[in-house]
Structure formats: structure tokens, C-alpha cells
Automatic annotation (TrEMBL), chain B:
This is Dolichyl-phosphate-mannose-protein mannosyltransferase. Signal peptide: none annotated. It comes from the Bacteria. The keyword Transmembrane helix applies.
Length: 165, 455
């Protein structure tokens, strides 16, 4: 019995001093894992509001995901092909002629899905949310054009009456 | 009055079906082990530990994600328990569990995220990172934390998740031993209970509960222990106050385990109807088992409410309408607890489902057949009726309990019947026919082989 206990304790000590056998591949305690600070979002793109219909057409890229209307304010969310670093480019928001509006806030949004779909890490922060003060009628659409070092594009979901396809 | 069950005169003698011959070899091995009980229990412990390692280690140490059966909350609860903290209602998930989910993903639902290592904001976690582990008593989490710490001290791993998951080997081994002990309390030998336990332990459901963090990992052990207490009490070998302890305790492991004392009460009632127990003792036993189970569940809810720091978060799937059809669809639901399914997309070898089928059929046939052919003086008749009733109505009773306790309607899952699995197996464990032995050998070997090949 004493021999067994001595052998068991020795085995435990030896195994405890050796490298772990079962090591996780990912997560805390995995080789190479380290806690990192959250990445800072890059500067948002510049936003211009237009009420005149552009004359030239542009290739399609990006998308308007949603236009949320509230009282005296509306919010446009989507993604566009923008530059990775500042200056990131310009979003031209074309509104119906009778809508008086001004930009309140612009934010960059992380879009790993866009980076994965385009196989380009430069598009990790392709998302945007633009908050605009103004009364956008329920039936009215919007058009968004993006211009950056990646080119000039018309975002999917844009109203064809406001900018040519 | 007590009931004497003689293991030498196996209850299978009550079943004399043509073509179903008792296995003489099995009887000889049983007799040999009966004379060497210490050796028998030691051999069973080694066998079950080996089986448990085959089942648990690949799942516990694999590179895959967290189990979709709420393992995110459970790993956080074990992490908190390892620091001596309880999960109170309204508590947020801590950094370790958030990183584990981000870096490993969730099986079948979420791939590993590129933000692994970065802070994971509340809105990237289910229920805005509020833990739902508070719904369970902390017993399992503290046991897993302690066992996991011991495992980490041995140097096998230095990871909290893997260490706590590996404790599943211990829970499963103890559960299988308790299962055999339960079978033997009702007159079973050694070989058939051992084979039945191996089949149960290797079944898909047990992989999903023992290989990952889940309070259900203790289901076999708790269920078998409660029913063992009922059996001993019936035979006059257990004082009544210990039966009360056995009735109250399951709720402090997981509320769904209260099904074990409830089916124990049903068993005692059927024994009374069959004239195997005097009515006074029947009423005492049933009242203690039902009252104890209710008191356990109720007192846990009171403790939980006292510990709350915020209102509880309701499961989105707990809102089934309360109607006759909602209950009726759960009739016979715990038939699936018997081995055939795992209620989560856990990666399992396909052959396992085929291998375990003979075990399912034998389990069901032994219980159903027992209700048809056993006489009223046979002590196994109440067990067979209880097993069949548990399979048929267990999920409905569970839903009724949740309805009364919370006002919501629970989505039934076969996993919730895990504490009844030892009882379901007793009618089978008490048989010794050649067909039974052959079927169990096929199931056990097939299941073990499929686990080993997948490993």
C-alpha cells in the first residue's frame, strides 16, 4: 500500500512538472493566444448631400441595407468600397429635391462579412451609418454614390429616379 | 413488510417464452463473480472508467466549438465557481467564457471569430451576455470546478474548459456503477447489467452530456442513486429520513432530476396495488418522495430568488402555448432518451446510431414485455410499469412541473429524461436470455468500435 501511494505521488509530481498533454487549439491557454485591445474604428467617410440628379452613371458596388425614418431624422445604413485609411472617400447621398436635410452623424461600421465576401481585408470597415436631420417622406427613396481610391460606385438599393443605374 | 429479491433465482424465470433460452455461460460468470464481489466491483470500475474515457476524452479535448446545449453559460459558471463565486440571476458572462466562444465558436451555430483575443462586447453574446446558468443549482458547477482543478494539478491540461470537461469521465463512471448497483438491487446478475451500462454510457445522448459541460452529466448518477434508495427503503434497508434526503437532493443538482423521486413514488404505488407493500407504508413512501421532490424544487427557487441581482431572463423557446396539444405531443417523448438521439448537432460517428439500436429495442421490449407477462407477485412488475410510464408520460409531467413553477411551457427534450434512464434499464438488466446477451454484446462492441474508429 505504501509503495502504491509513493508511486502514485511520484507519478503525479512527474506529470505535473511535464508539459500539458491536452492543449486547446484556440482560446485562452492555447499556444499563441493573447488578449488584444479592441481595434479602433477608422475615420468615417465624408458625406455630401445632393438634391440634383447626377448626369453620369456609375458601376454597381456596395449596398444600402436600411433607411430608418423617424420624426425629423432618418438613418441610412449600408456598405461601400472605401479606402482603408484616411482620406477614406466620399459618400454622396442624393435626396429628393424637396427634402431639406443636414448630416448629423457619420459612423464607420465593421463588416467582416464584406471583407470575407470580397476576399479583401481593406473592406473590414466598409460599413457606414449616416444620420441625417430632415423629413424624408415615407414613399421617397434615396441614392448613395461612393467615391474613393477604389473607384466610383452606385450602391445597390438606390432609387433609380434619383441617380441613373 | 420487506421484499426479498434473490439474485440467484433470477426474475427472468417469470418469463418463459419459447425460443428464449437463458444463457448458461452468463449465469456461470455471474455466479463466479457473486463469490468475488470485491473483484467484480473493481473490474467494473476499471471497465467503466475505460469506457468513459473513450466517450469523454475525444469530445472534451477536441478542437471543436462549445456545445450548443448552453455550454457558454456553463463554462462561465464553472469559471466563476473555480474562484468561489456563484452565478446570481442577472450576472454577466466573464471574459474567459467570452474568449472561449469567440475563439472556438459554437458547434453548428457559430464559427470562430476573427476578433478572438479582443474584448467581446455584450451585444456579440446571446442574451446580451447575461448568464442563464442561474436557473440551475450551483452544485454541478462547483463539483466540476473542483474536479477540473484536480485534473489540472496532475498536469494533463492547464485549460479550465478541458479540465472541467474531463471530469465527465468521473461522473460517467460513477453513473454507470450506480446503474449496475440499481439493477443488482432488483435481482440482476453481473454480465447483463455491465453490458447494458456500457451501451447506455456510449450512447449519443451520453456523449453530449458527459463530453461537454452540462449539469445533465450527473443525471445517471443522481437518478440511479435515488431509485436505489427507493429500492432499499422498500426492502427495509434504508431509514425513512434518508429516503426524504434522497427525494429532496435531486432538485439541488438539476430541477429536471426531480423526475427520479416522482417515478420512485409511482413505483411504490404500483407495488402497493400489486399487494407487495402494505398501504400504510405505500402512502408514507409516496408522500415522502413527492413531498420531498416538491420541497427541493420549491426551496431551490426561493434560494435562487434571494440571490437574484436582476429579473431572470426567459428562454425564447419557453413560450409554447398552454393547450392540450402542447402536452399531448410529448407523449412517449422519453423513448428517445434511450439512446437513439442526441438533441444537439454534436459531431458523432454515424455508425454509433446503428450500433445502439439493438440496445434501444431490448430496453423497450424488456420493459413493455415485463408489464405483460410478469405476475403481480413479481417484484419487477412495478419496475416495468414505472419504466413504461416514465417513457410515456415523463416529458408531460416535466412540462406540467415547469408550467406550475414558472408559468411558461417548456420545450421537451429527451435529455431531460436522463435521470430516468437507469430505471428504464432495470427490466433489461434483470434478464439473462441468450438473445438479450447477444443483442447487448453487439450494441456495446459496435458502439465502442465506432467511438474508437472516430477517435
Amino acid at each position: 500500500m505504501i509503495r502504491f501511494v509513493v508511486a502514485a505521488v511520484a507519478a503525479l509530481l512527474l506529470s505535473a512538472c511535464s508539459e500539458p498533454v491536452l492543449v486547446p487549439e484556440a482560446g485562452p491557454n492555447a499556444p499563441g493566444f493573447s488578449y488584444r485591445p479592441a481595434p479602433r474604428s477608422p475615420a468615417p467617410p465624408r458625406v455630401e448631400l445632393l438634391s440634383d440628379r447626377p448626369r453620369t452613371s456609375a458601376a454597381a458596388a456596395g449596398a444600402i441595407d436600411s433607411v430608418v425614418r423617424q420624426k425629423d431624422v432618418f438613418e441610412i445604413s449600408g456598405w461601400a468600397l472605401l479606402a482603408r485609411k484616411k482620406p477614406r472617400g466620399v459618400l454622396r447621398v442624393v435626396l429628393p429635391p424637396d427634402v431639406e436635410a443636414s448630416v448629423v452623424d457619420v459612423r464607420s461600421v465593421e463588416r467582416p462579412d464584406v471583407a470575407a465576401a470580397t476576399s479583401d481585408d481593406a473592406n473590414q470597415w466598409a460599413g457606414f451609418t449616416v444620420t441625417i436631420e430632415g423629413d424624408l417622406p415615407r414613399e421617397a427613396g434615396v441614392c448613395v454614390l461612393s467615391r474613393s481610391s477604389q473607384g466610383t460606385f452606385r450602391l445597390g438599393g438606390s432609387d433609380e429616379g434619383l441617380c441613373p443605374a | 413488510m420487506s421484499i426479498a429479491v434473490n439474485a440467484d433465482k433470477a426474475p427472468e424465470a417469470a418469463i418463459r417464452a419459447p425460443g428464449l433460452l437463458p444463457s448458461v455461460r452468463t449465469a456461470r460468470i455471474d455466479a463466479w463473480f457473486d463469490e468475488r464481489r470485491v473483484l467484480a466491483w473493481t473490474a467494473l470500475s476499471v471497465l467503466f472508467a475505460a469506457v468513459a474515457m473513450v466517450v469523454v476524452v475525444p469530445a472534451a479535448s477536441g478542437d471543436g466549438g462549445l456545445s450548443p446545449v448552453d455550454e457558454l453559460w456553463y463554462v462561465d459558471a464553472v469559471d466563476k465557481a473555480s474562484r468561489g463565486e456563484l452565478v446570481n440571476t442577472g450576472d454577466k458572462i466573464d471574459s474567459y467564457a467570452r474568449q472561449v466562444q469567440a475563439c472556438r465558436g459554437v458547434i453548428g451555430y457559430q464559427a470562430p471569430l476573427p476578433t478572438c483575443g479582443e474584448p467581446q462586447p455584450d451585444d456579440s453574446i446571446a442574451l446580451t451576455a447575461v448568464s442563464a446558468a442561474d436557473i440551475h443549482p450551483p452544485t454541478y458547477f462547483f463539483l466540476a470546478a473542483v474536479a477540473g482543478k484536480v485534473i489540472r494539478l496532475t498536469g494533463v491540461t492547464d485549460d479550465l474548459l478541458i479540465g472541467a470537461r474531463l471530469a465527465g469521465v468521473l461522473w460517467l463512471t460513477l453513473g454507470l456503477l450506480a446503474m449496475v448497483m440499481l439493477g443488482r438491487a432488483w435481482g440482476a446478475g453481473w454480465v447483463v447489467p455491465a453490458l447494458a451500462a456500457v451501451c447506455a454510457g456510449t450512447s449519443p445522448l451520453l456523449v453530449s452530456t458527459s463530453g461537454y459541460l452540462s449539469p445533465d452529466a450527473l443525471g445517471l448518477l443522481v437518478g440511479a442513486s435515488v431509485l436505489l434508495a427507493v429500492s432499499w427503503w422498500q426492502k427495509g434497508r434504508l431509514p425513512t429520513w434518508l429516503l426524504l434526503v434522497a427525494a429532496v437532493a435531486p432538485a439541488y443538482f438539476k430541477v429536471t432530476f426531480v423526475l427520479a423521486p416522482l417515478i420512485g413514488a409511482f413505483l411504490v404505488l404500483v407495488a402497493g396495488v400489486c399487494g407487495q407493500l402494505p398501504w400504510r407504508r405505500v402512502m408514507t413512501g409516496a408522500a415522502i418522495l413527492v413531498g420531498g421532490a416538491g420541497a427541493g424544487a420549491l426551496s431551490w427557487q426561493l434560494v435562487r430568488g434571494a440571490l437574484a441581482v436582476a429579473d431572470p431572463v426567459l428562454h425564447a423557446d419557453a413560450q409554447d402555448p398552454v393547450a392540450f396539444a402542447s402536452f399531448a405531443k410529448y407523449f412517449g417523448y422519453y423513448l428517445e432518451t434511450i439512446p437513439a438521439t442526441s438533441d444537439a448537432p454534436i459531431p458523432l460517428p454515424g455508425l454509433l446510431y446503428v450500433a445502439i439500436l439493438p440496445f434501444s429495442w431490448l430496453l423497450l421490449t424488456a420493459a413493455l414485455g415485463g408489464t405483460l407477462v410478469r405476475g403481480t407477485k413479481d417484484p419487477l412488475l412495478p419496475v416495468c410499469w414505472s419504466a413504461v410510464t416514465g417513457m410515456a408520460l415523463g416529458s408531460i409531467v416535466m412540462s406540467l412541473i415547469v408550467l406550475v413553477a414558472t408559468g411558461g411551457f417548456l420545450i421537451g427534450t429527451p435529455r431531460y429524461g436522463i435521470a430516468l434512464l437507469p430505471l428504464f434499464a432495470v427490466p433489461l438488466m434483470c434478464l439473462r436470455h441468450r438473445v438479450v446477451v447477444l443483442g447487448l454484446v453487439l450494441s456495446a462492441c459496435g458502439a465502442l468500435l465506432s467511438h474508437l474508429v472516430a477517435w
